[in-house]
Specification:
Strands 8-7-15-9-14-13-10-12-11 form a 9-stranded mixed beta sheet, sandwiched between helices. Helix 11 packs across helix 12 and helix 14 (about 335-345) packs across helix 16. The protein is α/β, with parallel strands linked by helices. ATP-dependent RNA helicase required for 60S ribosomal subunit synthesis. Involved in efficient pre-rRNA processing, predominantly at site A3, which is necessary for the normal formation of 25S and 5.8S rRNAs.
Length: about 650
């Protein structure tokens, strides 16, 4: 029954009233009215009647006299001049749907505009709900309540909703990973909206305006909302800002998560502003040229708003223009490690004034291929106590965590959006397991090497023909020569295909990436250089022609699809020689709710304990002993 129709009987007892009210609140019936005012009126009416029952007409009158209703998740006012009430509700609802051009149940911007108009009419009787494109009415109400109240329970509800967990290493053992859960620290209350308490006080208004006006951002992303207050929090005794580690999926807004706080803090410190030849105060290290260019684009755009300059430095291009930019003076540098190390050694770049150090895709920056250069560069920066260090990545393997702590001071670790972090009971249950995007349908096929090319042809006929001929498909190879060979093969098959790998010139890589983004070349063959953090929107399918060297790279690869709330498809060729990864791959698939194929399970599910590639089971050199020299192995050199 609808709440407006009362009971089938002439009278309603207390149990019936309560049941009807609860159903109305929980929206257990289609068409039921979620009306806080109605429920309150019904229960008060029962309490005051004293007769044990009251007529269903009185219930109907209570409903008709209530002004604010939520019908099917939409705020509407039923009482209008000249009559009205529940009887005309369906007609009004139908009319509203026609006026809006769509059903009140959809989640479009038209629905939200209707919500706002209706909410204004009832503003004196109800709190204003925060709106966000693509969010449901329930989620908007939760966000608004948490943002306005700021109480611990509301904040925790919001964090649970977005699967956010904060861990603090403060007062822990030296070098230990963050293990203490943060719940009630007001300094870290998330900026769920741009008007949240503390947001406009700590982040420059010009930067917020550029977000909301120039870019039409409606609210910070979860990683931004939680990282900003952490990075902007300041120790009252030392005046030092907190270090942070941000773990979130690719495409979640990590670049602005570290850029907005740093730009705000640097803009307020004007001692070096606009001075010729000034050394950089912000340093962002990235593993690939493409990722460095992507981050530089964001920093340049937002830096101009507050009169701060930035430049990008990477290998594979002439040095003189980069040297000229450094000699003129710059506030922010975004770079790959190899080329920056060369410029530091040549005396062109002074890192002694760096106050904000960022490692983007930190797990790869600290692996075997980059660790030596990263250590050298960080040693040329001020001591860790004299700078703020932030690390961001989509994965955070246990083998890397202890190593990262060498470069940071009691960081806050912010985990966003992983099922393995928030348990089914709502308790924190962080482990070292990798988590893949649940929106990506993972298909793994055990296959012999000689059968891969024929199978690839079959998959491309399925995913790159007919109505899907313009779908963006990312094909991953393991080596540069393999990528070049696949590009030639696909072009011979008649597909429009390009590739990016280390043997390509930078101009060729930029051109291939641009053509893939704009859809003129819908198939891109890439080595893992493209898997790390690149902004490639609307990739529908990822095909792993060769399985990567690590399970972390697998998660990064398939994370190129299923972004921004969309679904995606990944198809992986798994050869018998890859069997050492079978256990980890099964774990990743199960945690993402995917079905594990029987042929993969035949390899067993054992997961070997990971050791750091350089130090094995130990965290690193101790007791002042010299560090063992690393042998740098790369498949895509940044210094070619």
């Amino acid at each position: 029954m609808g709440a407006s129709e009362g009971s089938a009987d002439a009278t309603m007892g207390a149990d019936a009233v309560v049941k009807a009210a609860k159903k109305a609140l929980k929206r257990e019936e289609s068409g039921s009215m979620k009306i806080k005012h109605l429920t309150k009126s019904l229960l008060e009416k029962w309490d005051s009647s004293g007769s044990g029952s009251f007529d269903k007409n009185e219930v109907r009158r209570c409903i008709e006299e209530s002004e604010l209703f939520v019908v099917d998740g939409k705020v509407v006012a039923l009482k209008k001049k000249g009559g009205g009430g529940v009887i005309g509700d369906k007609k009004r609802k139908s009319s509203a749907e026609k006026d809006n051009g769509e059903s009140v149940k959809d989640g479009s911007a038209t629905k939200e505009e209707a919500d706002r108009k209706a909410a204004k009419k009832a503003a004196k009787r109800a709190k204003k709900e925060m709106k966000n494109a693509g969010k449901t009415t329930t989620e908007s109400a939760t966000t608004a309540a948490a943002s306005s109240s700021g109480d611990d329970s509301s904040i925790q509800t919001w964090r649970t909703q977005h699967k956010i967990v904060l861990r603090d290493s403060r007062n822990g053992e030296e070098g230990a990973t963050a293990t203490k859960s943060i719940v009630s620290n007001e300094d870290y209350h998330p900026y769920q909206t741009f008007d949240a308490p503390g947001c406009r006080e700590k982040i420059l208004g010009e930067l917020i305006s550029h977000c909301t006006v120039a870019n039409a951002f409606t609210r910070p992303t979860p990683i931004q909302a939680q990282c900003w207050p952490v990075l902007l929090s300041c120790d009252s005794k030392t005046g030092r800002h907190r270090d942070a580690v941000g773990i979130a999926e690719t495409g979640s807004g990590k670049t602005l998560a570290f850029s907005m706080p740093a730009l705000s803090l640097m803009s307020r410190e004007r001692s070096l502003a606009n001075k010729s030849g000034r050394p950089p105060r912000m340093l962002v290290l990235a593993p690939t040229r493409e990722l460095a260019m992507q981050s530089q684009k964001v920093l340049e755009e937002f830096g101009k708003v507050v009169n701060l300059t930035s430049t990008v430095i990477y290998g594979g291009v002439p040095k003189p223009p980069q040297k000229d930019a450094l000699r003129r003076g710059v506030d922010c540098i975004v770079c790959t490690p190899g080329r920056l190390k060369d410029l530091v050694n040549e005396g062109v770049c002074d890192l002694g004034k760096v106050r904000h150090l960022v490692l983007d895709e930190a797990d790869r920056m600290l692996d075997m291929g980059f660790e030596e250069d990263v250590r050298y560069i960080i040693s040329m920066c001020p001591a860790r106590e004299a700078r703020q260090t932030a690390m961001f990545s989509a994965t955070w393997p246990a083998a890397i965590q202890r190593l990262a702590m060498e470069f940071m001071v009691e960081p806050v670790c912010i985990y966003v959006g992983f099922e393995s972090i928030v348990g089914s009971n709502g308790e924190n249950s962080i482990d070292d397991a990798l988590s893949a995007n649940k929106r990506v349908a993972q298909s793994v096929e055990v296959i012999e090497d000689r059968a891969r090319e024929q199978r690839l042809s079959e998959l491309l006929k399925k995913y790159a023909s007919g109505k899907r001929s313009r779908d963006r498909i990312l094909v991953f190879a393991l080596y540069k020569k393999e990528a070049a060979r696949l590009e030639g093969t696909l072009n011979r098959w008649g597909y429009s295909c390009a590739s990016i790998h280390g043997d390509k010139t930078q101009d060729a890589r930029n051109r291939a990436l641009a053509e893939f983004k704009d859809g003129s070349c819908p198939i891109l063959v890439a080595t893992d250089v493209a898997a790390r953090g690149l902004d490639i929107p609307d990739v529908e399918v990822v095909l792993n022609y060769t399985f990567p060297l690590t399970i972390e790279d697998y998660v990064h690869r398939i994370g190129r699809t299923g972004r921004a709330g969309k679904s995606g498809i990944s198809h992986t060729f798994f050869q018998p020689g890859d069997k050492s990864h079978a256990g980890e791959l099964q774990q990743v698939m199960r945690q993402a709710g995917q079905e594990v194929p029987d042929e993969l399970m035949r390899f067993g599910s054992t997961i070997k304990k990971k050791e750091h590639k350089l130090y094995g089971a130990h965290s690193g050199p101790v007791g002042g002993l010299p560090m063992k020299k690393a042998v740098k192995i790369t498949f895509d050199s940044d210094d070619e």
